[in-house]
Amino acid sequence: MDPMVEYLKEERLPVDPVEASRIRKEAPKYTLVEQRLYMRGFSSPVLKCVDPEEAEYVIKEVHEGVCGTHIGGRALAGKIARAGYYWPSLKIDCMDYVKRCDTCQRFADSHQAPAEQMHTVTSPWPFHKWGIDILGPFPLAPGQLKFLTVAVDYFTKWVEAEPMTTITAERVKRFIWKKIICRFGLPAEIVSDNGTQFTSSTMAKFCQELHIRQSFTSVEHPQANGQAEAANRVILRAEELPQVLWSYHTTPHSTTRETPFRLTYGSEAVIPVEIGEPSPRTALFNPTANEEELRTNLDLLQETREIAHIKEYVVKARAARKYDRRMIHRDFQEGDLVLRKITLAVEKNKLTPKWEGSFRIVEKVGRGAYRLEHLEGRRVPRT
User: Fold this and answer.
1) What is the structure's pLDDT at 240?
2) Are residues 148 and 92 in the same domain?
3) What are the residues facing 133 on neighbouring strands?
4) In terms of domains, do 295 and 177 share one?
5) The Integrase catalytic domain covers which part of the protein (predicted)?
6) For the residues 258-286, what does the mean pLDDT come to?
7) Under a CB-based contact definition with an 8 Å cutoff, are residues 379 and 371 in contact?
8) Peptide bond before 137: cis, by omega within 30 degrees of 0?
9) Strand-by-strand arrangement of the 46-49 sheet
10) Do residues 125 and 155 touch, judged by C-beta distance below 8 A?
11) Distance CA 279, CA 281 (A)
12) Residues spanned by the domain of 66
């Protein structure tokens, strides 16, 4: 018999003095109705006290029964209390049940707070590391061009881009050879997403022969290739590409505070406005002094690049601190069962699940990335 029922019915207390004191203090809150324990309530005169087995039935029926609508944990606890039921861990049990509800998890909104700290990416010197991405398909441009391959140097922010009719590994390889290697030398590293154009054996062999390291971003996490993604927002139409690139190269970047043109060539480019309305350097142009100025600029180029690198580090460190303040760390271990956010291009509405699975974690890659497998043991590709 429950100690509280025993006390209310026969005024018999437990042997343990601490437990006896607790029963005596709590007893005024309870009453017996037809030999059943009830708690005196505020939302209703009395609340029926239920045991763990009855509590599980009540939670399940209210949450997902005939009239259940998969409400949240706090609302679920309130609804159960208003219906006239009580047990000591009511709210905690409701919150826990909702967290474990399979349907609620599959339709839950995505987490807005980051789960990992921001890991900033920099390059030690010009043209050491490039980020590459593919845009499109766009509306057809002259020449049946509807794709755009874009590459960005992580240090100078210099952008190379080329419109294409189709995107294949062979075309991407030619782009890297023509636009990057033949103009700026062999890079040490190329960062890309997991597109088949970059993960193919053709690209792998090409990079291995030239000792170029391939780095791939996490699936559906393009921020890891932030340089290319940032440039993508600037380039809109293939036919306007030369003007867009010119403007981008001659505009100071928000992180380095220098133009990509100056960090690449050592001096600022002459822009059209300096011809229409002569600037000091065009109005007072002196061939002899100009040659000396160019030599001086080249002598000071290394210092300019180092200062730009420091400025970029400061800006990215500030952004990382702001980002990390929003972080709610979430960590999983090998063997844990998880759901994965649905990212395929399917029609989405309020009735469409947002998560798929379950999957089992087989390896912690690091920095919030994991390798997954289906429950029957089959590996999940691109994770």
Assistant:
1) 75
2) no
3) 150
4) yes
5) 122-235
6) 86
7) yes
8) yes
9) 30-33, 36-40, 46-49, 85-86
10) yes
11) 6
12) 3-107
Indicate the range of 105-109, 242-246, 371-375 predicted with least confidence.
105-109
Q: Which residues contact 105 (CB under 8 A, 6 or more apart)?
A: 99, 339, 355
- Claim to verify: residue 12 and residue 87 sit in the same structural domain: yes
Record the pTM.
Answer: 0.66
Same domain as 369, residue 232: no
CATH of the domain at 246: 3.30.420.10
Torsion angle, alpha carbons of 182, 188, 190, 196, to 10:
90
Instruction: Fill in the amino acid letter for 291.
Output: E
**CA distance linking residue 123 with residue 334, whole number of Å:** 33
Question: Parallel, antiparallel, or unpaired: how do β-strands 85-86 and 46-49 relate?
Answer: parallel
DSSP state of 224: G
Report yes or no on 122 lying in a domain: no
For the chain, the domain total comes to: 3
* Candidate from 136-145, 283-292, 364-373 with smallest mean pLDDT: 136-145
For residues 346 and 307, membership in a common domain is answered with no
Q: Which two tokens stand for residue 53?
A: 């087995």
Distance of CA 109 to CAs 56, 77, 228, 349, 355, Å? 26, 21, 28, 12, 9
Please report which residue ranges of the chain form alpha helices under DSSP H. 3-10, 17-26, 52-64, 73-83, 90-100, 102-107, 169-175, 182-184, 196-199, 201-209, 226-232, 241-249, 260-265, 273-276, 280-283, 287-299, 301-324
129-183 pLDDT per residue, tens: 999 998 878 777 676 778 889 999 999 999 999 988 888 999 999 999 999 999 9
Q: What does the block give as tokens for 66?
A: 């005939």
CATH number of the domain enclosing 60 = 1.10.340.70
> Are both 207 and 155 inside the same structural domain?
yes
Question: What's the longest Cα–Cα distance across the chain?
Answer: 112
Higher pLDDT, 174 or 104: 174
Residue 343 has pLDDT above 80, yes or no: no
Secondary structure (DSSP) of 8-60: HHH-PPPSSHHHHHHHHHHGGGEEEETTEEEEE-SSSSEEEE--HHHHHHHHH
List the one residue out of 275, 274, 247, 273 whose CA is nearest residue 261. Answer: 247
Average pLDDT over residues 281-288: 78
Q: Tell me if 47 is assigned to some domain.
A: yes
Where is pLDDT greater, at 85 or 241? 85
